[in-house]
Amino acid sequence: MLSTRPLTSLGDMLNLSEGRFDWLTSSDNLLEDASLLRDRLQEDGYLYLPGLLDADLVNEAREVLLGQLDGLGMIDRDFPIAEGVAKQPWQGRPCHHLVKDNPPLQQLLRSGRMMEFYERLFDSAVRSFDFTWMRVIGPGHGTAPHADSVYMNRGTRNLYTSWTPLMEITPEIGGLTVMPGSHRLDRLKKYFEGDVDSYCTNQPNRSPQDVHEWIGPLGDGKLSQHPAQLQSRLGLPWLTAETYRPGDVVVFSIYTIHGSLDNHSNRIRLSTDTRYQRADEPADERWIGETPVGHGGAVRKGMIC
Question: Does some domain include residue 85?
């Protein structure tokens, strides 16, 4: 059954009609058949895997994280810390650094069931990026539609993201949205091949928007600031889950368009993004090492435009 209540992303009211919105299709019945998992990934661009991970370990990781956020003054102490209610006025900030001091989270993402899944999927030894994206999203707008390729395509393209909810996330709290089949759209090939850390060496007077026309209208990798318009323009639906639960994972390719719903609750939405690939293939140097450099001037790459 489709949603009967309004859903928004970046303030846009999404079209919830048939063919424009739906719930994710579970692939948990395919877990023992890597060939079928790969076929579905190739066709849909994502795998929704409810209960893949140890829910108790997820809950341990969340408890540690909420304690960290409380220490940073981001939790409203008028409520139990375990509820994760956002302190108002909400002041979001990067929290990626918290991962290294959260042993249950490290265990969850880089060992056990997660790594075993990717070893089956790749039929190979696996490595993950050393950088983990910690998502600590308070009330307000969600994430703009984009593909990961424009941020991490300097290594293998055979790279997948695990989006891992660390709490129960309903559409009101604003979970991940995925656009199935978007990874196969020929009209997006130029976008997919872009790199947010590139610049034109031969045309220094071009504006940033012109220079980066192949990586979104703002040159920051975001495909659109209007998720509802993107539904119509690409002719593909947005998918999400009726409820994401601890232990669930959504896997998608670096070419799959995704974003998130807005958070209309008073709670902080907690999740992580981690990336996995074959260990014997090159990794994007921006996201590996003891202190990954990420984006910025140190990794800018000139090209002829």
Answer: yes
Give residue 124's pLDDT: 97
Phi, psi torsion values for 146, nearest 5 degrees: -165, 170
User: Predicted confidence band at 217 (pLDDT cuts at 50, 70, 90)?
Assistant: low
| Tokens (6 digits) for 132 | 């983990």
Asked if the structure places residue 286 within a domain, the reply is: no
Please report the beta strands in 69-175, taking only residues with DSSP state E, as ranges in sequence order. 126-128, 133-137, 159-165
CA 26 to chain centre: 18
pLDDT beyond 80 at 40: yes
Looking at residue 260, its pLDDT comes to 98
Phi, psi of 187 (to 5 degrees): -70, -15
Q: 40 near 33, Cβ under 8 Å? A: no
Q: How many whole angstroms separate alpha carbon 193 and alpha carbon 150?
A: 7
Contact criterion met (CB below 8 Å) for 223 and 191: yes
Q: By mean pLDDT, which of 48-57, 91-100, 216-225 is the weakest?
A: 216-225
- Degrees to nearest 5, angle at CA 118 with 254 and 28: 95
Which residues lie below 8 Å from residue 116, measured CB to CB, with a gap of 6+? none
CATH code for the domain of 158: 2.60.120.620
213 domain-assigned: yes
pLDDT at 90 (0 to 100): 96
> Does 198 map to a domain?
yes
Which residues form the domain of 271?
A: 20-278
Is residue 41 within 8 Å of 250, Cβ to Cβ? no
Average pLDDT (26-30) is: 97
Beta strands in the chain (DSSP E): 8-9, 12-13, 21-23, 46-49, 126-128, 133-137, 159-165, 176-178, 198-200, 238-240, 249-253, 258-260, 269-278, 301-303
How many residues belong to the chain? 305
Tally of domains within the chain: 1
